[in-house]
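Field log, afternoon session.

UNIT: design team B
ACTIVITY: writing a sequence onto a fixed backbone
BACKBONE:
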């Protein structure tokens, strides 16, 4: 949606912040891909490489999203304000909002919440201690911690129009289903589970775990909707959904 006098940040400030966020993710993604692989952590050498890890998929997703934000901001800063009310500028904003509300926020929040929940309970289930010798601590936090404050900053920086609740949740469910199918396919082809916790669960426990993980995406979508509405309720940029 086009910027309004009530917007909390100017288009130039948005561009500056998005350039910083995008640069951070490019730097983090490059650092992740530059890690020297140890024989103790053959994950990136086995079938699927880094692409079987949701953390890496999310890292790429956040990088693409903020890169797209930069593109949208540049268009809005270059074109006259009257030209941004329709056509390509409005289309870009619609894509940006859909990307953020359906994928970037719920998936990023899931990575943050699920990782640190399991890590706190028993880190060996998700991030064995030997990985500390392979992955720098700062990079671990860049992939699993920093994502959350950046998502919240983006939510506060610009209003985002959510699609209909049904369409948004269905699109997110499609993503979750595709990733789950990918995880099972990796197991079928390579004989390896993507995460240690999966190898420790019984068949029934595994079904319950994967089911709960998939279903938890919907509440995260609703959380994003509620937070966005709470932040922007006084701006008149979002209407309450029935």
């Amino acid at each position: 949606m086009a910027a309004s006098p009530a917007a909390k940040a100017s288009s130039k400030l948005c561009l500056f912040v998005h350039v910083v966020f995008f640069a951070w993710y490019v730097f983090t993604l490059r650092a992740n891909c530059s890690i020297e692989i140890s024989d103790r952590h053959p994950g990136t050498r086995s079938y699927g490489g880094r692409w079987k890890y949701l953390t890496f998929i999310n890292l790429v997703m956040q990088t693409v999203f903020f890169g797209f934000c930069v593109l949208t901001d540049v268009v809005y800063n270059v074109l006259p304000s009257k030209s941004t009310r329709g056509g390509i500028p409005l289309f870009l904003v619609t894509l940006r909002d859909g990307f953020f509300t359906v994928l970037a926020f719920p998936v990023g929040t899931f990575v943050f919440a699920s990782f640190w929940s399991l890590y706190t309970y028993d880190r060996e289930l998700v991030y064995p201690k030997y990985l500390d010798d392979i992955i720098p601590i700062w990079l671990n936090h860049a992939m699993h911690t920093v994502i959350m404050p950046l998502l919240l900053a983006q939510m506060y920086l610009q209003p985002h129009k959510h699609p209909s609740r049904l369409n948004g949740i269905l699109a997110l469910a499609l993503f979750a289903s595709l990733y789950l199918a990918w995880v099972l396919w990796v197991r079928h082809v390579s004989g390896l589970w993507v995460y240690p916790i999966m190898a420790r669960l019984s068949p029934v426990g595994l079904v319950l775990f994967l089911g709960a993980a998939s279903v938890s995406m919907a509440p995260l979508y609703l959380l994003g909707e509620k937070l966005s509405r709470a932040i922007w309720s006084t701006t008149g940029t979002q209407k309450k959904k029935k």
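LOG NOTE: Residues 162 and 225 are 7 Å apart (CA to CA).
NEXT ACTIVITY: expression trials, pending approval
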